[in-house]
Every structure is written in structure tokens, then in C-alpha cells.
UniProtKB/TrEMBL annotation:
Transmembrane segments: none annotated. InterPro entries: 4Fe4S_Fe-S-bd (IPR017896), 4Fe4S_Fe_S_CS (IPR017900), Ion_transpt_RnfC/RsxC (IPR010208), Nuo51_FMN-bd (IPR011538), Nuo51_FMN-bd_sf (IPR037225), PduS (IPR017054), RnfC_N (IPR026902), Soluble_ligand-bd (IPR019554). It comes from the Bacteria. This is 4Fe-4S ferredoxin-type domain-containing protein. The keyword Metal-binding applies. GO terms for cellular component: membrane.
Amino acid sequence: MLLEQITSAGIVGCGGAGFPTAAKLRAEAEYFIINAAECEPLLKTDHYVMNHFAKECVQAIAEVGKLLKAQHIVIATKVHYTKEIRALETAIDELQVPVSIFKMENYYPAGDEQAMVFEVTGRTVPPSGIPIEVGCVVSNISTMLNVYHAKQDKPFTHKLLTITGAVNNPKILQVPIGTSFADCLEMAGGATLEEFMFINGGPMMGRVGTKEEFFQQVVTKTTSGIILTEKRDFLYELFEKDMQQVINKARSSCIQCRLCTELCPRYQIGHPIHPHRIMRHLAITEVPEDISDDPIWQEALLCCSCGICEVIACPMGLMPRQVNNYVKARLAEKGIRYPKSEQPLIPSLMRDYQKVPPKNILLKDGLQEYAELKVEELVAFKPDTVTIPLKMHIGVPAQPVVGVGDTVQVGALIGKTPEKALGADIHASIDGTITAVTPEKITIEGRAI
């Protein structure tokens, strides 16, 4: 019953790429681990969820743990989140459920699911593998709030997100999916800068865009935050630099210091990934022609794109993450995957001494001025119009099941996942009339029904 409710609600993971939650929960696991680490600096959404919806989350966590037949149900969060931990502990005591709290150090990326599995269990997920291979399922705390709503027969139609940075009133917003970023900015009192850039997501793994691009964006099921800041060349380079420039600079400037490897969180848990070797490989190959079934190129497939190699590690200002992403794309074009191996996985002995504090990331990104902003107030907002993408998740897009002129109410099914395909259903997020339908998106204008 619970799995069907989660499927019908169209729930996808709120903490990452949007993997359909029901597909992840069709398993049995020894450990059910909840990611409550709020890994990216400046984002405060999961903080709000833990502080204000702890009981709802814990109830959902316990029931999903039972569904998975998990022997251990663990909420992993950072040790200095004292207020949030108290709220969770109170909820656990009131509900009398077999849920424990694992307190992590404050480092980035504590929320990487494979790093979290290692922290909680001491097990290393196999290279290119997933947590269930070592008996674990990992899900985000905000995803569990949506599971709670699904049990009340409420589909995933609204999103909690942080809007912060160069705005007059940083806030937690609760908005219908499909709300424009422009409406979100208005709810935050507007920008403090005439010219700005934005990050859709967190400073390390979000997507950077221009002011012009900002006004084309809408909130999706995976939108975790919106950060406005002044134009910074460093941030643009991290995400948008011309690839040929990245390659040329890597060929000419890499000093093979190994710092990108030593600080790589996947290398630290024992994965055979060595970004410095990949950078060196650029100097002796023709790109992209020679990117093929080569053991060193294949190491790029293990990169989690956390960005530590670029933001923190490299003293030469090179872009190992972008190189890895480029190599991954070329290998994918040729259908090349990382080969499974039985080689032993040996974690780095220096791991505990090489964890990166989030404050170092903000200093390097030039975002430290926003570190102390209070983001605690929740504002709920209902726009006049929403534009809802039909693909907000890993898998295939949902297919429209409504037409122009149809009237819908909040929660009505408007996009259906094809049978036996990986995906998530899409629901109307406001009451209104369908005014546009394409294979990519559906527009609803709010009107009396």
C-alpha cells in the first residue's frame, strides 16, 4: 500500500538528481539511512523541515524502514545541528519508533550518499555501484516529508526551497511546482543588485546562470535553493568555461601535485579514481577522438562531480571536474561503462584529516558574505500561473494526459509515466485551466473552477 501511494504521488528524491523514490524502495535493506546533512553551504531547507516537521518525517521514516525490512534505521545529520537533533529526538521518543541518529562532522560533501554510507556503516559502495549493493538505501529528509503527505493521499505538488544571497529578505518558500523564479524573487523582496547572477541549487553542485536566464527558470521537484550573487568570473568558470580552454589549460599547467586526488571524496573511501592521472592523460591524447575504452579514462566515470578538486584542491586553477564530466559524456556516447572488478577497496588513511569545511568553500567562491544570513521564515505563495516541466527526474518524461481548455484542481494527474518505464507522474500544482501543452511542459492559469 505505501509503495503504491508513493508511486501515485509522483515522489522523487529532493536531495539530488531526482531518482523516483518508489523505484529505490523496491528492495530489502539492512540499513535505511536518511540524509539530513544539508550538505551544500547556504541552503537551509532541510533545517526547516527538521525543525518544523520532525514528527511527520520520523513517522514516514519508520514506516519506510519497515517496508524495507531494515534492521537499522538511521538519520544521519551534522553534530552541530543541535536544534534539529533535539527536534528529531523528541519526535522519536514521542512515536516510540526504532530510529537512531548518527552525528557526522561538518564537512563537504557529507551529503554524498556514498560518503554517508561509509560514515554510518564503514562499508564502501563498489565503484560505479549503488548503496543497495552493500545493504543500504539512502533517502533525503525532505523526501520523507513528501512520503508522509503521500500517506494522506496528497501528491507531490509543492516545493520547499531556500532563496538567499543578494536578496532583501532571504526566506524559505513553499511554492507550487512550476512557479517562476521571478515570483520567488518577488517573495524575497527583490534583488539587492541591479546586475546579478544566480545559482540554481547549492554553490558547489548547482547550476550557474545569468540574470537573463534567471527569468526563464521555474521551480521543479528537485529545486533545493536559489542563490543570487554579484557576477563572479570564478563561479562562471566552475560551470560554464569553454571546454577547449579547459583542456588546453590542463595540458599546459597541470603540475601533477595529486591534491585533486587526495581530496577526492570517492578516492578517500577507496574508489580507484585519480583525477591527476586523468589530467595527465590529456597531454598524450587527441581529444575527443582518443577518449575510448581506456582504464584511465574510465576512472572519470567514478567522479561524483562534487567540485572539491576545482574549488579547493587545485593550486593552478584547473578544472578536473569539468574534464571528468567531459570524458564521462564521451564514454557514454560510445556506450562504455565502468567495468566491475573484485579488486580490494582500501580507504585513505588520511581521510579524517582531509575533510573540507564548508566555510572554506564559501571563502573560495566569494560567497562568505551570505554565510550569516538568517533564513528561518517560511512564506507560502500561490502564483497566478505555473509552467510545469514533464521531466523533473531521472528516467523518461511523463506524457500529458490533459489538453488545452481542461480545468484541473490541485493534485489532478496531468502527466503519466509510460507503463514499465522509470519515471514519475506529474500533478497540477494550482487550481485552474490548462492553457498550453507540449511534450516538455504544461501551463496552468489559475481561474475559478
